């Protein structure tokens, strides 16, 4: 090659680069599609690519108009506000970008218009979310740890974390959505009506060093692409399949929402749209995790509030700035998109108290606007009823009013675990439960509280109660007969145990039988021990009875202050009265029932629905030591 020709080649390459450098190129549009016939006729499409700033946007489709195009600090983004007129038909169109770019030809600089097109679709709405409420029994599954339905998706060499190893409690184990789908009949038999999965959205996060051990993001709380379900769980297709299969079998699905933060490897953080997309601090600032800082409207300091709200949850989960209207729209539209795209029925909102609460109200309201009876339950690991009530619809006279309709009931969780582990005394044992329920006056509808004995962040229930089957049956009975929407954690029905020692991985063990080569299959009665079957059958019997007992769903709850080690409450409506009798005595007792006349008048006999025993005389009940009875009263 002569010097002359190589100089020419360099010149040509330079021209090409100049042209290419300026040409707009769309790599993605979020939401990835939208729908006609939404109550809110507007959607903001976030376009990401190269050199989008300065481009003019056109769409040629009947009914669709561009209201505004927002340029932001980063030239690789454009945010396009679309208006979709009510009569708009579903269909496909292009989002067209055109831009004047400079081109050098024959030593002269010329301008020319370059165009780029991104295919977009407005679909017809076809999803009808169902209401989740106290009729339901929710079953929480950590998808990586339940069942492996497809061994070929356990790991991928092109992801940030390439490991899967069942021998290591901190790494991914290969469980997936098909694995859950394969065991729906097991859950149906148990009496479950609703599934809540820990987050399924892509977590393409590298392993992180926590407490000296390298850990995978198998829990799912660090999103890296809102619009893709993690490939290792089976991707969007497997999630659609699971939701459809679950619906066909009569289940509902609750999705885990994370609005407060994303994974540090999220695609939009590698090229941030604008500086205030995240809460940024001069030096790294962690949230204080103190809920008082948020609800203490009387005495709290602004600085404590800011640290709690805007500090990062952990260093690898950056805190989103939800006061930024573009961030707000991105998160809210993703929630709506998820309901319409997958057909989910409800939401559990992670780390609720760390979110901008005005943002959360707007987010909840956007969901209620499209789906008026949507169940949204807020996670707040708090200790008091006042704090718990602050973050949901409540009866408190405060200037801030949450629109969230359900808390994850940590106050119930704390009380039931403490009550079962204490000796009965004034204020202790079952008195704790009674006192906790008396505080229900703070909630607008305590029957919407998501009650639980354990979950993925807590010590397993069977271990907490010292592996005592009598306490186990009492706890399960309170969960399934007291007010609220009961939630069971996977494996609690087969007595999975452990404390979070040395880490929470211990309470997230694999469900035995869900993985190839497991020595026992506890999805089958034949694979369970006698005691495991006793537990499974107990849950199954009560859960299935509960399914068809409206008094246990929407009936009033009347409780009597515990006396002599015995706690009695009733669930009752016009059709039925259910009496629950719990004992914390180490001796058998006889209970005279005259004190409960306001609930028992007119009833002469009963049936213990746990044992099927008939009770012919209700005036005096035999109450065995540490027992529980669920009695359907009869005339
Ligand atoms: Ca798998
Ligand atoms: Ca926050």
What does this protein look like?
The model is unreliable at about 10-20 (pLDDT under 50). The N and C termini lie far apart (about 105 Å). A hairpin with a 2-residue loop joins strand 7 and strand 8 (about 110-125). About 25% of the residues lie in helices and about 25% in strands. The chain is built from 15 helices and 28 strands. The strands form 7 sheets. It has an 8-stranded parallel sheet with strand order 18-17-16-15-10-9-20-19. The chain is α/β, with parallel strands linked by helices. It is elongated, with a radius of gyration of 28 Å. It folds into 3 domains: about 5-125, Immunoglobulin-like (Sandwich); about 140-550, TIM Barrel (Alpha-Beta Barrel); about 555-635, Sandwich (Immunoglobulin-like), CATH 2.60.40. It binds calcium ion (2 copies). The site of one calcium ion has 7 residues, from loops. One calcium ion binds next to loops.
Q: List the bound ligands.
A: calcium ion
**CATH level 4 superfamily of the largest domain:** Glycosidases
Number of helices: 15
* DSSP strand content: 15-25%
What is the radius of gyration?
28 Å
CATH topology label of the largest domain: TIM Barrel
The main sheet comes to: 8 strands, parallel
* Largest sheet strand order: 18-17-16-15-10-9-20-19
In total, the number of strands is: 28
Instruction: Calculate the terminal CA-CA distance, rounded to whole Å.
Output: 105 Å
CATH architectural grouping of the largest domain: Alpha-Beta Barrel
**Anisotropy-based shape:** elongated
What's the rounded overall pLDDT mean? 95
């Amino acid at each position: 090659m002569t010097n002359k020709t190589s100089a020419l080649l360099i010149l040509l390459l330079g021209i090409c680069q100049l042209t290419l450098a300026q040409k707009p190129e769309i790599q993605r549009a979020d939401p990835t599609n939208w729908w006609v016939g939404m109550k809110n006729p507007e959607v903001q499409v976030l376009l990401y690519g190269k050199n989008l700033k300065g481009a003019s946007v056109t769409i040629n489709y009947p009914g669709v108009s561009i209201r505004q195009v927002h340029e932001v600090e980063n030239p690789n983004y454009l945010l396009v506000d679309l208006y979709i007129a009510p009569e708009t038909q579903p269909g496909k169109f292009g989002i067209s970008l055109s831009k004047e770019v400079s081109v050098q030809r024959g030593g002269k600089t010329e301008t020319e218009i370059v165009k780029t097109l991104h295919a977009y679709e407005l679909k017809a709405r076809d999803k009808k979310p169902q209401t989740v409420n106290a009729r339901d029994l929710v079953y929480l599954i950590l998808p990586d740890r339940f069942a492996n339905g497809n061994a070929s998706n356990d790991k991928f060499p092109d992801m940030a974390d390439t490991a899967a190893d069942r021998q290591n409690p901190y790494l991914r184990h290969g469980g997936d959505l098909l694995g859950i789908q394969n065991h729906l009949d097991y859950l149906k038999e148990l009496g479950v009506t609703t599934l809540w999965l820990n987050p399924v959205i892509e977590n393409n996060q590298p392993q992180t060093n926590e407490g000296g051990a390298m850990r995978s993001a198998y829990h799912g709380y660090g999103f890296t692409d809102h619009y893709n379900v993690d490939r290792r769980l089976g991707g969007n297709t497997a999630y659609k399949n699971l939701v459809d299969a679950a619906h066909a079998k009569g289940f509902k699905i609750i999705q885990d929402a994370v609005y407060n933060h994303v994974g540090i490897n999220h695609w939009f953080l590698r090229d941030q749209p604008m500086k205030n997309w995240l809460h940024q601090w001069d030096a790294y600032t962690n949230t204080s995790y103190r809920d008082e800082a948020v609800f203490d409207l009387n005495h709290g300091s602004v600085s404590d509030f800011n640290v709690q709200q805007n500090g990062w949850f952990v260093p690898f989960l950056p805190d989103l700035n939800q006061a930024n209207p573009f961030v707000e729209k991105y998160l809210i539209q993703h929630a709506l998109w998820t309901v319409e795209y997958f057909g989910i029925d409800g939401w559990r909102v992670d780390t609720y108290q760390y979110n901008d609460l005005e943002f959360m109200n707007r987010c909840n309201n956007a969901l209620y606007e499209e789906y008026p009876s949507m169940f949204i339950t807020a996670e707040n690991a708090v200790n008091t009823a006042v704090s718990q009530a602050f973050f949901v619809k409540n009866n408190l006279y405060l200037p801030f009013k949450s629109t969230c309709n359900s808390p994850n009931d940590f106050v119930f969780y704390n009380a039931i675990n403490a009550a079962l582990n204490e000796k009965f005394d004034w204020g202790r044992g079952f008195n704790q439960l009674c006192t906790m329920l008396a505080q229900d006056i703070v909630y607008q509808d305590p029957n919407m509280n998501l009650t639980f004995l354990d979950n993925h962040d807590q010590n397993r229930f069977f271990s907490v109660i010292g592996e005592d089957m009598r306490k186990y049956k009492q706890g399960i009975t309170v969960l399934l007969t007291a007010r609220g929407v009961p939630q069971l954690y996977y494996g609690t029905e087969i007595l999975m145990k452990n404390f979070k020692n040395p880490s929470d991985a211990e309470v997230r063990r694999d469900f035995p039988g869900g993985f190839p080569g497991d020595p026992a299959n506890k999805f089958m009665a034949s694979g369970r021990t006698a005691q495991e079957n006793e537990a499974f059958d107990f849950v199954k019997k009560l859960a299935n009875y509960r399914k068809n007992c409206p008094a246990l769903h929407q009936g009033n709850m009347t409780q009597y202050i515990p006396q002599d080690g015995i706690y009695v409450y009733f669930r009752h409506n016009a059709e039925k009265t259910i009496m629950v009798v719990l004992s914390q005595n180490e001796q058998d007792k006889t209970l005279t029932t005259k004190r409960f006349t306001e609930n028992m008048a007119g009833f002469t006999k009963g049936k213990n629905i746990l044992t099927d025993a008939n009770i012919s005389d209700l005036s005096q009940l035999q109450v065995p030591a540490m027992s529980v009875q669920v009695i359907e009263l009869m005339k």
